[in-house]
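Example 3.2
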Amino acid sequence: MDSSSSFFNIPDLFSQAEPLSIGGATCDCYRVRLYGRLHFLKRLKEELRTDPRYVAAMQKEFEAGYNLDHPYIVKYLSRGDDYMLMEYVDGERLSSFMSNHPDFFTTKAHVDRFLSQLLAAVDCLHQHGIVHLDLKPQNILITRVGQNVKLVDLGFCYTDAYPNTMGRTDRYAAPEQHDPHQLPDQRTDIYAIGRILEQFPCAYKYNKVIVRCTEAQPKLRYQSAQELLSAIQPKTISWWPFAVVGIVIAILLSFYLLWPHSSLPVADTQPSDTIIPTKEIVPIEDSKESEQQQVMVPIPESAPSSAIQQPSPSLSKKMSVTELRQKLRSIMQPVYASTLEPLTQKTYVGNDQLYNAEAESFRNQLRNRLHPLGEELVKTGAVEQYTFYKEWSSMEMEYINKAYDQMVQNQEQPSNDIPKP
Protein backbone atom coordinates (compact mmCIF):
# COMPACT_ATOMS: atom_id res chain seq x y z
CA MET A 1 0.00 0.00 0.00
CA ASP A 2 1.45 3.35 -1.05
CA SER A 3 1.45 5.61 2.05
CA SER A 4 1.05 8.69 -0.12
CA SER A 5 -1.96 7.44 -2.08
CA SER A 6 -5.36 9.15 -1.92
CA PHE A 7 -8.64 7.44 -2.76
CA PHE A 8 -12.24 8.39 -3.39
CA ASN A 9 -14.06 5.20 -2.45
CA ILE A 10 -13.05 3.25 0.65
CA PRO A 11 -14.29 -0.14 -0.67
CA ASP A 12 -12.06 0.25 -3.76
CA LEU A 13 -8.97 0.09 -1.57
CA PHE A 14 -10.33 -1.94 1.34
CA SER A 15 -12.72 -4.62 0.14
CA GLN A 16 -14.06 -5.33 3.62
CA ALA A 17 -14.63 -1.82 4.97
CA GLU A 18 -17.45 -1.47 7.50
CA PRO A 19 -18.60 2.09 8.35
CA LEU A 20 -18.71 2.85 12.07
CA SER A 21 -21.05 5.30 13.79
CA ILE A 22 -18.34 6.75 16.07
CA GLY A 23 -16.94 9.32 13.67
CA GLY A 24 -16.56 12.84 14.98
CA ALA A 25 -17.11 16.22 13.39
CA THR A 26 -14.06 15.96 11.15
CA CYS A 27 -13.63 12.28 10.22
CA ASP A 28 -15.49 9.19 9.04
CA CYS A 29 -14.45 5.91 10.65
CA TYR A 30 -14.33 2.35 9.31
CA ARG A 31 -13.44 -1.11 10.52
CA VAL A 32 -11.36 -2.88 7.86
CA ARG A 33 -9.87 -6.34 7.62
CA LEU A 34 -6.33 -6.74 6.26
CA TYR A 35 -4.49 -10.06 6.19
CA GLY A 36 -7.17 -11.57 8.40
CA ARG A 37 -6.75 -8.92 11.09
CA LEU A 38 -9.09 -6.04 12.03
CA HIS A 39 -7.84 -2.47 11.72
CA PHE A 40 -9.35 0.95 12.40
CA LEU A 41 -9.38 3.51 9.58
CA LYS A 42 -10.07 7.22 10.04
CA ARG A 43 -10.61 9.47 7.02
CA LEU A 44 -11.30 13.19 6.76
CA LYS A 45 -14.84 14.10 5.76
CA GLU A 46 -15.22 14.96 2.09
CA GLU A 47 -15.62 18.71 2.61
CA LEU A 48 -12.40 18.88 4.68
CA ARG A 49 -10.07 16.82 2.48
CA THR A 50 -8.80 19.88 0.63
CA ASP A 51 -8.55 22.10 3.73
CA PRO A 52 -4.81 22.38 4.52
CA ARG A 53 -5.51 22.92 8.23
CA TYR A 54 -7.22 19.57 8.68
CA VAL A 55 -4.80 17.75 6.39
CA ALA A 56 -1.94 19.15 8.51
CA ALA A 57 -3.76 18.13 11.71
CA MET A 58 -4.06 14.55 10.47
CA GLN A 59 -0.40 14.52 9.48
CA LYS A 60 0.52 15.86 12.93
CA GLU A 61 -1.53 13.19 14.68
CA PHE A 62 0.06 10.39 12.69
CA GLU A 63 3.64 11.64 13.09
CA ALA A 64 3.14 12.19 16.83
CA GLY A 65 1.64 8.75 17.39
CA TYR A 66 3.67 6.65 14.94
CA ASN A 67 6.79 6.54 17.13
CA LEU A 68 4.88 5.66 20.30
CA ASP A 69 4.86 2.07 21.49
CA HIS A 70 2.89 1.78 24.71
CA PRO A 71 0.31 -0.81 25.83
CA TYR A 72 -2.20 1.90 26.80
CA ILE A 73 -1.89 4.05 23.65
CA VAL A 74 -3.46 3.03 20.33
CA LYS A 75 -0.87 2.12 17.67
CA TYR A 76 -0.63 4.13 14.43
CA LEU A 77 0.28 1.93 11.45
CA SER A 78 0.17 3.88 8.14
CA ARG A 79 -1.40 6.86 6.41
CA GLY A 80 -2.44 8.29 3.06
CA ASP A 81 -3.23 11.85 2.00
CA ASP A 82 -6.53 11.96 3.79
CA TYR A 83 -6.70 8.86 6.01
CA MET A 84 -4.86 6.94 8.74
CA LEU A 85 -4.78 3.26 9.59
CA MET A 86 -4.53 2.21 13.25
CA GLU A 87 -4.89 -0.90 15.36
CA TYR A 88 -8.48 -1.89 16.06
CA VAL A 89 -9.54 -1.83 19.73
CA ASP A 90 -12.50 -3.97 20.77
CA GLY A 91 -13.96 -1.85 23.52
CA GLU A 92 -16.04 1.16 24.49
CA ARG A 93 -15.39 4.82 25.03
CA LEU A 94 -15.10 5.63 28.74
CA SER A 95 -18.31 7.68 28.61
CA SER A 96 -20.27 4.71 27.18
CA PHE A 97 -18.57 2.23 29.49
CA MET A 98 -19.63 4.22 32.57
CA SER A 99 -23.23 4.35 31.30
CA ASN A 100 -23.34 0.62 30.48
CA HIS A 101 -21.50 -0.47 33.66
CA PRO A 102 -22.63 2.04 36.33
CA ASP A 103 -21.31 -0.03 39.26
CA PHE A 104 -17.81 -0.73 37.92
CA PHE A 105 -16.20 2.51 39.06
CA THR A 106 -17.95 2.63 42.42
CA THR A 107 -15.00 0.53 43.61
CA LYS A 108 -11.94 2.62 44.43
CA ALA A 109 -9.61 -0.21 43.39
CA HIS A 110 -11.03 -0.06 39.85
CA VAL A 111 -10.60 3.71 39.69
CA ASP A 112 -7.02 3.46 41.00
CA ARG A 113 -6.22 0.88 38.33
CA PHE A 114 -7.79 3.03 35.60
CA LEU A 115 -5.85 6.10 36.77
CA SER A 116 -2.55 4.24 36.95
CA GLN A 117 -2.96 3.06 33.32
CA LEU A 118 -4.12 6.46 32.05
CA LEU A 119 -1.28 8.25 33.84
CA ALA A 120 1.23 5.75 32.43
CA ALA A 121 -0.02 6.56 28.91
CA VAL A 122 0.01 10.33 29.54
CA ASP A 123 3.48 10.13 31.06
CA CYS A 124 4.69 8.33 27.91
CA LEU A 125 3.34 11.23 25.80
CA HIS A 126 5.07 13.78 28.01
CA GLN A 127 8.35 11.86 27.88
CA HIS A 128 8.17 12.16 24.06
CA GLY A 129 7.46 15.90 24.19
CA ILE A 130 3.73 15.55 23.42
CA VAL A 131 0.88 17.21 25.32
CA HIS A 132 -2.49 15.64 24.46
CA LEU A 133 -4.66 18.74 25.13
CA ASP A 134 -7.95 16.91 24.52
CA LEU A 135 -8.17 14.35 27.30
CA LYS A 136 -11.83 13.46 27.86
CA PRO A 137 -13.96 10.32 28.28
CA GLN A 138 -14.66 10.19 24.51
CA ASN A 139 -10.91 9.85 23.78
CA ILE A 140 -10.29 7.04 26.29
CA LEU A 141 -11.27 3.49 25.31
CA ILE A 142 -11.87 0.65 27.79
CA THR A 143 -11.10 -2.74 26.26
CA ARG A 144 -13.77 -5.43 26.37
CA VAL A 145 -11.26 -8.01 27.64
CA GLY A 146 -9.42 -6.94 30.77
CA GLN A 147 -11.01 -3.46 31.00
CA ASN A 148 -7.70 -1.81 30.11
CA VAL A 149 -7.11 1.76 28.92
CA LYS A 150 -6.40 2.71 25.31
CA LEU A 151 -5.74 6.42 24.75
CA VAL A 152 -6.71 7.72 21.28
CA ASP A 153 -6.98 10.88 19.15
CA LEU A 154 -3.87 13.06 19.11
CA GLY A 155 -5.45 15.49 16.64
CA PHE A 156 -5.29 18.47 19.02
CA CYS A 157 -1.93 17.59 20.58
CA TYR A 158 1.01 19.96 21.05
CA THR A 159 4.54 19.02 20.01
CA ASP A 160 7.72 20.97 19.37
CA ALA A 161 7.26 20.48 15.62
CA TYR A 162 3.54 21.36 15.69
CA PRO A 163 3.07 24.07 18.32
CA ASN A 164 -0.27 25.27 16.93
CA THR A 165 -3.39 23.46 18.11
CA MET A 166 -6.75 23.67 16.34
CA GLY A 167 -9.23 23.14 19.11
CA ARG A 168 -10.19 21.99 22.58
CA THR A 169 -13.14 20.65 24.55
CA ASP A 170 -14.15 23.46 26.89
CA ARG A 171 -15.48 21.24 29.67
CA TYR A 172 -12.01 19.72 30.15
CA ALA A 173 -9.83 22.59 28.93
CA ALA A 174 -7.48 24.26 31.42
CA PRO A 175 -7.64 28.07 31.82
CA GLU A 176 -4.39 28.52 29.88
CA GLN A 177 -6.00 26.93 26.81
CA HIS A 178 -8.37 29.91 26.67
CA ASP A 179 -5.47 32.39 26.81
CA PRO A 180 -3.56 32.85 23.52
CA HIS A 181 -0.62 34.32 25.44
CA GLN A 182 -0.01 31.15 27.48
CA LEU A 183 1.58 27.96 26.19
CA PRO A 184 0.27 24.58 27.36
CA ASP A 185 2.49 22.02 29.02
CA GLN A 186 2.13 18.69 30.85
CA ARG A 187 0.18 20.41 33.65
CA THR A 188 -2.58 21.21 31.14
CA ASP A 189 -3.24 17.47 30.79
CA ILE A 190 -3.21 17.14 34.61
CA TYR A 191 -6.09 19.63 34.75
CA ALA A 192 -8.16 17.55 32.30
CA ILE A 193 -7.54 14.38 34.32
CA GLY A 194 -8.96 16.14 37.37
CA ARG A 195 -12.08 17.08 35.41
CA ILE A 196 -12.45 13.45 34.21
CA LEU A 197 -12.05 12.17 37.77
CA GLU A 198 -14.94 14.40 38.92
CA GLN A 199 -17.37 12.24 36.92
CA PHE A 200 -16.67 8.94 38.69
CA PRO A 201 -19.25 7.71 41.22
CA CYS A 202 -16.65 7.70 44.02
CA ALA A 203 -15.15 11.09 43.11
CA TYR A 204 -15.56 12.24 46.72
CA LYS A 205 -12.78 9.83 47.71
CA TYR A 206 -10.40 11.83 45.49
CA ASN A 207 -11.60 15.30 46.49
CA LYS A 208 -8.17 16.59 47.55
CA VAL A 209 -6.58 15.19 44.38
CA ILE A 210 -9.27 16.78 42.19
CA VAL A 211 -8.89 20.14 43.92
CA ARG A 212 -5.16 20.20 43.26
CA CYS A 213 -5.47 18.93 39.66
CA THR A 214 -7.94 21.67 38.77
CA GLU A 215 -6.16 24.64 40.31
CA ALA A 216 -6.43 27.67 38.01
CA GLN A 217 -2.70 28.34 38.23
CA PRO A 218 -0.52 25.57 36.70
CA LYS A 219 2.17 26.00 39.36
CA LEU A 220 -0.33 24.89 42.05
CA ARG A 221 -1.23 21.62 40.28
CA TYR A 222 0.66 18.36 40.28
CA GLN A 223 3.71 19.04 38.14
CA SER A 224 3.82 15.67 36.36
CA ALA A 225 1.87 12.48 35.79
CA GLN A 226 4.33 10.66 38.05
CA GLU A 227 3.66 13.07 40.92
CA LEU A 228 -0.10 12.60 40.50
CA LEU A 229 0.34 8.81 40.39
CA SER A 230 2.30 8.93 43.67
CA ALA A 231 -0.56 10.86 45.27
CA ILE A 232 -3.18 8.20 44.48
CA GLN A 233 -1.08 5.10 45.12
CA PRO A 234 -1.26 3.68 48.66
CA LYS A 235 1.93 4.13 50.63
CA THR A 236 3.67 0.77 51.10
CA ILE A 237 5.93 -0.14 54.01
CA SER A 238 9.10 -2.13 53.41
CA TRP A 239 9.17 -5.03 55.86
CA TRP A 240 12.58 -6.47 55.11
CA PRO A 241 14.47 -4.31 57.70
CA PHE A 242 12.09 -5.55 60.41
CA ALA A 243 12.58 -9.13 59.24
CA VAL A 244 16.39 -8.80 59.44
CA VAL A 245 16.19 -7.32 62.95
CA GLY A 246 13.85 -10.10 64.03
CA ILE A 247 16.23 -12.79 62.74
CA VAL A 248 19.20 -11.20 64.54
CA ILE A 249 17.25 -10.99 67.82
CA ALA A 250 16.19 -14.65 67.48
CA ILE A 251 19.81 -15.76 66.94
CA LEU A 252 21.09 -13.78 69.91
CA LEU A 253 18.29 -15.08 72.12
CA SER A 254 19.01 -18.68 71.14
CA PHE A 255 22.72 -18.25 71.99
CA TYR A 256 21.78 -16.74 75.33
CA LEU A 257 19.44 -19.60 76.25
CA LEU A 258 21.79 -22.38 75.11
CA TRP A 259 25.09 -20.98 76.45
CA PRO A 260 26.02 -22.23 80.01
CA HIS A 261 25.85 -19.40 82.58
CA SER A 262 27.97 -19.17 85.78
CA SER A 263 26.17 -18.69 89.08
CA LEU A 264 25.62 -15.09 89.90
CA PRO A 265 26.08 -13.83 93.53
CA VAL A 266 22.86 -13.17 95.37
CA ALA A 267 22.55 -9.65 96.65
CA ASP A 268 22.44 -9.18 100.43
CA THR A 269 18.88 -8.33 101.34
CA GLN A 270 19.58 -7.76 105.03
CA PRO A 271 19.10 -4.20 106.27
CA SER A 272 22.31 -2.26 106.37
CA ASP A 273 23.62 -0.51 109.45
CA THR A 274 24.69 2.40 107.32
CA ILE A 275 22.89 5.54 108.31
CA ILE A 276 21.75 7.60 105.37
CA PRO A 277 21.84 11.28 106.21
CA THR A 278 18.64 13.16 105.57
CA LYS A 279 17.97 16.82 105.07
CA GLU A 280 17.14 18.83 108.15
CA ILE A 281 13.41 19.18 108.62
CA VAL A 282 12.46 22.79 109.15
CA PRO A 283 9.12 23.26 110.92
CA ILE A 284 6.58 25.35 109.04
CA GLU A 285 5.45 28.45 110.85
CA ASP A 286 1.96 28.26 112.21
CA SER A 287 0.31 30.82 109.97
CA LYS A 288 -2.94 31.01 108.11
CA GLU A 289 -1.12 31.12 104.78
CA SER A 290 0.83 27.93 105.52
CA GLU A 291 -2.26 26.28 106.84
CA GLN A 292 -4.15 27.07 103.67
CA GLN A 293 -1.34 25.63 101.56
CA GLN A 294 -1.40 22.30 103.38
CA VAL A 295 -5.15 21.78 103.67
CA MET A 296 -6.36 18.95 101.36
CA VAL A 297 -10.09 18.73 100.65
CA PRO A 298 -11.04 15.09 99.93
CA ILE A 299 -13.61 14.30 97.25
CA PRO A 300 -16.54 12.29 98.63
CA GLU A 301 -16.77 8.77 97.33
CA SER A 302 -20.32 9.45 96.21
CA ALA A 303 -19.32 12.43 94.06
CA PRO A 304 -20.23 12.09 90.36
CA SER A 305 -17.45 11.43 87.85
CA SER A 306 -18.12 14.81 86.23
CA ALA A 307 -16.88 16.45 89.42
CA ILE A 308 -13.51 14.79 88.93
CA GLN A 309 -12.89 15.46 85.21
CA GLN A 310 -14.79 17.96 83.11
CA PRO A 311 -14.81 17.49 79.31
CA SER A 312 -12.66 19.88 77.31
CA PRO A 313 -14.65 22.93 76.18
CA SER A 314 -12.99 22.67 72.73
CA LEU A 315 -14.89 19.48 71.88
CA SER A 316 -18.01 20.23 69.83
CA LYS A 317 -21.23 18.30 69.54
CA LYS A 318 -21.26 15.77 66.69
CA MET A 319 -23.12 17.06 63.63
CA SER A 320 -25.53 14.82 61.79
CA VAL A 321 -25.32 14.57 58.00
CA THR A 322 -28.54 16.60 57.75
CA GLU A 323 -27.09 19.39 59.89
CA LEU A 324 -23.86 19.34 57.88
CA ARG A 325 -25.72 19.62 54.57
CA GLN A 326 -27.78 22.52 55.94
CA LYS A 327 -24.55 24.25 56.95
CA LEU A 328 -22.98 23.66 53.52
CA ARG A 329 -26.14 24.78 51.72
CA SER A 330 -26.21 28.06 53.66
CA ILE A 331 -22.74 28.79 52.23
CA MET A 332 -23.22 27.36 48.73
CA GLN A 333 -26.58 28.93 47.91
CA PRO A 334 -25.42 32.60 47.95
CA VAL A 335 -22.36 31.69 45.85
CA TYR A 336 -24.58 29.81 43.39
CA ALA A 337 -26.96 32.79 43.21
CA SER A 338 -24.12 35.13 42.22
CA THR A 339 -22.41 32.83 39.69
CA LEU A 340 -24.40 30.01 38.08
CA GLU A 341 -28.04 30.88 38.79
CA PRO A 342 -28.19 33.82 36.31
CA LEU A 343 -27.20 31.35 33.55
CA THR A 344 -30.36 29.29 34.10
CA GLN A 345 -32.17 31.91 32.03
CA LYS A 346 -29.95 31.13 29.03
CA THR A 347 -29.30 28.18 26.71
CA TYR A 348 -26.11 26.13 26.91
CA VAL A 349 -25.26 26.41 23.20
CA GLY A 350 -23.70 29.81 22.65
CA ASN A 351 -23.02 30.26 26.36
CA ASP A 352 -20.84 27.21 27.03
CA GLN A 353 -17.68 29.26 27.63
CA LEU A 354 -19.54 31.53 30.04
CA TYR A 355 -20.91 28.44 31.82
CA ASN A 356 -17.42 26.97 32.23
CA ALA A 357 -16.07 30.28 33.55
CA GLU A 358 -18.87 30.65 36.10
CA ALA A 359 -18.57 27.00 37.16
CA GLU A 360 -14.86 27.58 37.78
CA SER A 361 -15.63 30.73 39.77
CA PHE A 362 -18.25 28.79 41.78
CA ARG A 363 -15.70 26.09 42.65
CA ASN A 364 -12.97 28.55 43.59
CA GLN A 365 -15.23 30.58 45.88
CA LEU A 366 -16.46 27.43 47.62
CA ARG A 367 -12.88 26.23 48.02
CA ASN A 368 -11.88 29.46 49.77
CA ARG A 369 -14.86 29.33 52.14
CA LEU A 370 -15.21 25.62 52.86
CA HIS A 371 -11.58 24.59 53.42
CA PRO A 372 -11.29 26.65 56.65
CA LEU A 373 -14.72 25.43 57.80
CA GLY A 374 -13.74 21.80 57.17
CA GLU A 375 -10.49 22.12 59.10
CA GLU A 376 -12.32 23.68 62.06
CA LEU A 377 -15.10 21.06 62.15
CA VAL A 378 -12.68 18.14 61.80
CA LYS A 379 -10.31 19.57 64.44
CA THR A 380 -13.09 19.99 67.00
CA GLY A 381 -14.53 16.55 66.27
CA ALA A 382 -17.86 17.83 64.94
CA VAL A 383 -17.56 15.79 61.71
CA GLU A 384 -15.22 13.25 60.20
CA GLN A 385 -12.98 14.46 57.38
CA TYR A 386 -14.31 11.79 55.00
CA THR A 387 -17.94 12.82 55.64
CA PHE A 388 -17.25 16.53 55.21
CA TYR A 389 -15.47 16.20 51.86
CA LYS A 390 -17.95 13.63 50.58
CA GLU A 391 -20.93 15.90 51.23
CA TRP A 392 -19.08 18.96 49.91
CA SER A 393 -18.20 17.20 46.64
CA SER A 394 -21.70 15.76 46.23
CA MET A 395 -23.52 19.06 46.83
CA GLU A 396 -21.09 21.05 44.66
CA MET A 397 -21.82 18.78 41.69
CA GLU A 398 -25.57 19.03 42.40
CA TYR A 399 -25.45 22.82 42.01
CA ILE A 400 -23.26 22.70 38.89
CA ASN A 401 -25.45 20.05 37.23
CA LYS A 402 -28.57 21.98 38.23
CA ALA A 403 -27.46 24.99 36.17
CA TYR A 404 -26.29 22.82 33.27
CA ASP A 405 -29.53 20.79 33.10
CA GLN A 406 -31.65 23.94 33.12
CA MET A 407 -29.59 25.49 30.29
CA VAL A 408 -29.94 22.33 28.20
CA GLN A 409 -33.67 22.23 28.95
CA ASN A 410 -33.99 25.85 27.79
CA GLN A 411 -32.21 24.86 24.60
CA GLU A 412 -34.77 22.16 23.88
CA GLN A 413 -37.72 24.52 24.42
CA PRO A 414 -39.02 26.95 21.80
CA SER A 415 -37.36 30.33 22.14
CA ASN A 416 -40.58 32.04 23.25
CA ASP A 417 -40.89 29.56 26.16
CA ILE A 418 -37.45 30.32 27.62
CA PRO A 419 -37.85 32.20 30.91
CA LYS A 420 -36.79 35.82 30.71
CA PRO A 421 -34.55 37.42 33.36
